[in-house]
Amino acid sequence: MSISGDSKRMESQRSHNQLHVIFLPYPTPGHMIPMIDTARLFAKHGVNVTIITTHANASTFQRSIDSDFNSGYSIKTHLIHFPSAQVGLPHGVENIKDATSFEMFGKISRGLSMLQDPIELLFQDLQPDCIVTDMMLPWTVEAAAKLNIPRLYYYSSSYFSNCASHFIRKYRPHDDLVSDTQKFTIPCLPHTIEMTPLMLADWIRTKNSATGSFGAIFGPIFESEKRSYGTLYNSFHELESDYEKLNKTTIGIKSWSVGPVSTWINKDDDNNSNRGDIGKEGELLNWLNTKPNESVLYVSFGSLTRLSHEQIVEIAYGLENSSHNFIWVVREKDKDEDVEGFLQSFEERMKESNKGYIIWNWAPQLVILDHPATGGIVTHCGWNSILESLSVGLPMITWPMFGEQFYNEKLVVDVLKIGVSVGSKVNKFWLSIGEDVVVRREDIAKAVEILMGSGQESKEMRIRAKKLGDASKRTIEKDGDSYNNLIQLIDELKSLKKSKANGEK
């Protein structure tokens, strides 16, 4: 349900005694999806929820919000106008994933920054009891302080990545190395984790990162976490308990693990395919149904990753040269004339051999992962994909591309031991596509053989992944850790609201 104008004041009056929490997501899929799921969880536990977003971004999840509202939950979307014309963008381009160039990325970012003032006015108008905002919106700390309400910092990745990033920024163990390919050990972690400078994002890797453009962006973000009431993590205790504990002692503020939110929210939903194009789902399921259990590898690189023509060719031959079935999701942005022609020819060969299935653009990922024929995933190590794979007990081939994904790979491979690395070595900003091949076909085929084969390493990874999958389901059941954390947080926010009301009387 979308509301605007006078109707929201009537709504506010009706829910005066109900805890009102505003959620403000950052418009990129890896950040938006878990926050929207979390907002829905709050509503399903009795909270009056308002999600503030733009028209085009709301269209990606509005059906779920309408369904929840029609089921009796107090949840709504408040739409704000994105200034497309002012920043020179086509109508409807309002999400970071829509950027096809650095120039376009800059325009979307400028448009988002222009929303700060109207959103602050909206906070004042709606008078929430708490705001939950994405880590990329550090200015909301000040906005919450003006209203004398708590701001919760939403971190959409792992405890491990936050801890690793913190200690690398603090101690800079890579600064004095003679080469970008030389290994260093991340200090202060409970496990021995080795990386190379090339695996770090540019803004951390370079010595003048604090004054660089991205350093200037991330400095206020990390500072805002320290000044927030606490941090929400889409994680769970059994998954990374050592780093949950380390994070609390390191960052020094409260945190709540309430994940995996996609598993939690989708166990109540009738249709897991609502995140993808379901037009060809029947054909896909028919193909999967012909395959033995745990025999199909699912290959997906997320919504932001760009792949060069040369790399796509290597992936195709790497998959073809392995002895295992696969489903490969190819995004529209990876297609140019040469790539499209190559992939169409490749797709025909795979249809003839019945070995591979190509999905163009969006895929019903949750449906595929949950199918008994699916036995593993090639992942870019985005946190949502890792959690969705874990929730169904799948081991992984890790292929990080940018950002904190290289940290997540270390968690999966070195700490949890439920994945095998394909050998990706260079952290590049997601819009940077070189013509270089990052990973060769023989390395891809080798990783597929280790993960999908019948060797001891594969068996042990599967046992560990299934154990974590079971834990991910227990934690969201009544009296599970994540369930209790959510209830405790909501109760705490209600108590703060009550104290504030009593203090005003």
Description:
By secondary structure, the chain is α/β, with parallel strands linked by helices. The protein is 48% helix and 14% strand. It contains 22 helices and 16 strands. It has helices at 7-14, 29-44, 55-58, 62-70, 84-87, 102-113, 116-126, 140-147, 159-171, 202-205, 213-226, 237-251, 261-266, 281-289, 309-321, 337-353, 365-370, 383-391, 405-415, 441-452, 456-474, 481-504, and strands at residues 2-3, 20-24, 48-54, 75-80, 130-134, 151-155, 184-185, 194-195, 230-233, 254-257, 296-300, 325-330, 356-360, 374-379, 396-398, 419-421. An eight-stranded parallel β-sheet has the order 1-4-3-2-5-6-9-10, sandwiched between helices. Strand 5 (130-134), helix 8 (140-147) and strand 6 form a beta-alpha-beta unit. It is globular. It starts with a strand and ends with a helix. The model is unreliable at 271-278 (pLDDT under 50).
Low-pLDDT stretches are 271-278
Helical fraction equals 40-55%
> Sheet with the most strands?
8 strands, parallel
Quaternary organization: single chain
Number of helical segments? Answer: 22
Distance between the termini: 34 Å
What is the overall shape? globular
According to DSSP, the number of beta strands is: 16
| Order of strands, widest sheet | 1-4-3-2-5-6-9-10
Global mean pLDDT: 91
- Beta-strand percent range: 5-15%
Structural class: alpha/beta
Rg from C-alpha positions? 23 Å
